[in-house]
Amino acid sequence: METVLSLKNVSKNIKGRPIIKNISFEVKRGQIYGFLGPNGAGKTMTLRMIVGLIRPSSGSIEICGVNTRKDFVRAMSNVGCIIENPELYEYLTGRDNLELLRKMEPDIPQSRIEDVVELVGLTLRINDKVGTYSLGMKQRLGIAQALMKGPELLILDEPTNGLDPAGIKEFRSLVKSLSKDQGMTIFVSSHLLSEIQMICDEVAIILHGKIIKTSKVIDLTIDQKITWQVTNVQKAMKLLLDDFGIEAVKETEETLSAFTDDFRLTAINSAMMSSDIGLKYVFKKQKSLEDLFMELTGGETIG
């Protein structure tokens, strides 16, 4: 697959202090790529470097194969973005906001306004003043602004901040539609684990300015949390460690839990019964990104 966004060994130092530390990842065409980390981990700083608001101290950033340092204008012609919050004139209508933007980009035809309004689902309210919009509608209008140039890459920084559950659900549907129906490549920064898990194909996890994990979301969460109720917890924990290399956690006097997949679960259950460990019940729950994040960060809070 073609690489749309590439960061190679990117670092940023401020007053001699390293903020972003030698990070690298690639976003392929058509992906919804998640950038996950606690507040203050370096997500927005990285996004600001990608779009040229801050210059990296070292490393390279390429967008659609164009190095941002060597040809910034051409690289950025492929990008639409909302960093932090969309900038809107609330005393104007949604259409007027888009028209102002169109006039700053002479190559954008008038018909593009209708196209993006339909894409983001604002047709019925586009002629109303932005001051009457909900936060979710303002976010949609911001995305419409970002789509005006027909970008190859859409960058969204914490896009669900402040949205209620209905607004988050609408945003999720919109992003999936843009990816599936328009073939758009979308890079989403968030500290909301559940949102990344529900909409993204791949994820890079950042902590203290370092990328600590990159992977397909489905691969990160393939293991399940298994809880066993047994007649001998200590014996079951020893069997898991000795025979399967799995470190279990004692939950109660009768229950223990660990992460594993379905294939090994069958073998574990058989081994327990063969070892005269009575099984009262087995409960499984798919591992979430939160479980993974806690493992990778040693329990550090996610903000």
Question: Can you walk through the features of this model?
Answer:
The protein has helices at residues 43-50, 72-76, 94-104, 111-120, 135-147, 165-182, 193-199, 217-220, 233-244, 262-274, 289-297; strands spanning 3-14, 17-28, 32-36, 58-63, 66-67, 79-82, 153-157, 185-190, 202-207, 210-216, 224-230, 249-250, 255-260, 279-286. The protein has 303 residues and is of the alpha/beta class. The protein folds into two domains: 3-219, Rossmann fold (3-Layer(aba) Sandwich); 224-286, YebC, transcriptional regulation domain (Alpha-Beta Plaits, 2-Layer Sandwich), CATH 3.30.70. It has a six-stranded mixed sheet, sandwiched between helices. It is elongated, with a radius of gyration of 23 Å. It starts with a strand and ends in a 6-residue tail after the last helix.
What's the total helix number?
11
**Average pLDDT number:** 89
Unreliable spans are: none
Oligomer: single chain
CATH topology of the largest domain: Rossmann fold
Going by CATH, the homologous superfamily of the largest domain would be: P-loop containing nucleotide triphosphate hydrolases
The N- to C-terminal Cα distance equals 34 Å
- Write down the domain tally: 2
Structural class: alpha/beta
How are helices and strands ordered from N to C? EEEHEEHEHHHEHEHEEHEHEEHEH
Q: What is the β-strand count?
A: 14
The percent range for strand residues is: 25-35%
Helix percent reads 25-40%
**CATH classification, class level of the largest domain:** Alpha Beta
Query: What CATH architecture of the largest domain would you give?
Result: 3-Layer(aba) Sandwich
